Amino acid sequence: MTLPSSEFYSRQILFRGIAQEGQLKLQAARVAIVGCGGTGSAIASLLARAGTGFLRIIDRDYVETSNLARQSLFDETDAAEFLPKAVAAARKLSQCNSGVDIEPQVADLAPDNVETLLADCSLIMDGTDNFETRYLINDFAVMKRLPWIYSAAVGSVGVTMNILPGETACLACMFPDSPRGALETCETSGILNAAVASIGALASAEALKFLTGAKSLMRRTLLSQDVWWNDYAEIPADTARADCRCCAQHEFPHLSGENRPHITLCGRNSVQIHEQRRTIDLGELEQRLLKQGAVRRNEFALRFWREPYELTLFPDGRAIIKGTTDVTVARSFYARFVSA
Amino acid sequence: MQVQVRLFANFRIGRFKEQMRDFPPGTSIRKAVEELGIDASQVGTVLVDSKYAKLDQELHENARLGIFPMVGGG
Fold this sequence. Notes:
The complex is a heterodimer of chains A (340) and B (74). With 340 residues, chain A is of the alpha/beta class. Helices cover 32% and strands 21% of the residues of chain A. Chain A is built from twelve helices and 14 strands. Chain B is 9% helix and 35% strand. Chain B is globular and about 40 Å long.
């Protein structure tokens, strides 16, 4: 194997932790990034620029103006065109480094596609904004003994943890119970762009260690840092919980879809409907909806406005309905204008 | 009884990093969490003397209690 462009990576190769040998390992690596918001954008950018050979970017959402202050891969044109984040990210990253293979997946990671989307990668990076998906990743990764890196941020605080199945604690060791109340989110508590960039950078450095064969240098703690209040702390995560349902009892309820709601809230004034898995002809639907309200379509999605709601529909039947958090209202809107 | 409480991440904001607190004997971790003004549903990891603990576990004299929140955004 030879390096595609020694000039591109020349300074990185000079760093002795990477060197030629590490760069070749990076070139052969396959990584999945689940979620491409603030942390996901930071991670994707760093791993693509570092020369990770294959990156699969999985995201269910589209670019909005409110993303642009912190989601570094997107711009105003992406928001105006309501491009899926996975597609917009892949375009941007290919311009940054044409030597890496970027595969966008406009999809909601779910029990029925987790094998297809994650199994052929050697590392999974967490860029999601919800624990439902993180527990799914954790169940799959522990069962398959695939390493993954948890990252999250809210306000000025970021947290991250390396999960090396069989060696460290897993997410269910650290957080055994699913959130029972509403956790703070970027929509409720705000988010500082430096917090996502910083925690994304820390997680990416851990990824580079793993991908270049420096696993022994990886952190075995749950780390938090607060970039506003200048605070940094860690707790040990080097031992699995003796009664962990994943590590010890080998129970993986999230893989079977247990406790998974058919409709999930996206954390803002929106409801996602993902129970209608079927192919939809967006062109045909556009013609039908033109009589009902304003419609726009691109090659990836259709958007339909009818006050006070905005529906974004993907070709697989998945939809995000903005303007309500009431599942019944969203279902009714979907049934009325898309399909019962 | 005296308990050394250590908070992490956004639990520190408006509270403290580390403090000695006095609780009645037999106080559960859940009760201590509530007394600290923390919603128990936001708690991710609880450590007592550096070992994993559960919210319904009772604290003991001179316990070292660590409380780490679930942080979910991205």
